[in-house]
Every structure is written in C-alpha cells, then in structure tokens.
Design a protein that fits this description.
Elements (H helix, E strand, L loop, with lengths): L3 E2 L2 E8 L2 E7 L4 E5 L13 E5 L7 H16 L14 H11 L7 E2 H7 L6 H9 L12 E2 L12 H10 L6
Parallel strand pairs: 6-7
Antiparallel strand pairs: 1-2, 2-3, 2-5, 3-4
Amino acid sequence: MSRAAGDAAYLRLETSWGVVDVFTDGRAVIACSLPEIGDSVRRNFSLGSTLLFGSSRQRPLVKMADRFVRAALVGEAAPVPPLRFEGTPWQRAVWRVLQALSRGEVASYGEVAARMGHPRAARAVGAACGSNPLPLFIPCHRIVAANGRLGGFSGGLAWKRHLLEREGVTCA
C-alpha cells in the first residue's frame, strides 16, 4: 500500500524478508525502513511488486528510488536518487564518507574515523552509522569492526550479511 500527503510520496517494496518502505519529500529520498529479520531467515531472496503513490511530479524520483532499492537488494549498482538527510554535522560527515565507499568495499569504523581526521573516533562513527535514516542509500552495512567481524547494523545483522554477500563480500 502507498500513501502520499502534499509533496510527499512513499514507495513500498514487498520482499521475501518483509516490507521495505522508502519515503520522499517530493525532491529527495528522506527515509528508508527495513523489516527486522532473524539470522535463520531463508537465504533465497525475492522482490515482489511495488506500489507507487504521489503526483506525477514525484514519479521520476520514486521510480529512481525504486530502481536503486531493487539493485541494492540484489547487490547491483544503480544511480543514487537525490537524498536529504538530517543529522548533526558529525553524522552528516560520516554519512558522506560512507557514500564514497564503492559497492563491495568495506572499511572499519576506525578507518572511517581516520579518513575524517579523527582516528580515535571509531565509536562515534559507529553511533552515526546506527542513526542512519537511509540504510540502503547510505551504505553503513559496508562498515565492519576492526577485527573484520560484522559489528552492528540498524536493520540487523541478517540484513548486513545479506547486503554484503550480494556485493561479493565474504562475511566473517
């Protein structure tokens, strides 16, 4: 089901793991939610129909978001739609570094902190990853612990493992 209010629109994708919702404000994607899944979820993944809602003015943005989500869920590349995210200056800086990571590229929380000129701020990077409002669009699933283990993910470790495996990354 899809609903729209004013310039806002939302896209609902039915997956074999549950519903993925993507919210727009008419100009940019502003939020994305992933269903909680357990580690015992089946390994096969399928993506069903998408229902769109909003005026014809939003349709290009919603279609672009739909293409991106579909590609991300199977580990393929697609153009990133315009994004608008709110957060502290630190969070936004972390999220920009994450956006620069290529598909299949992983970095540790400490490596991200070092790239930002704050090598001792690994925990602060982790906190910013945990508050990411766009987990498919800002790829915090590509951030791992220093020992190569998965660390955390706002959608849960099953999602993180799935997304990384689809990008060709072997999970520890």
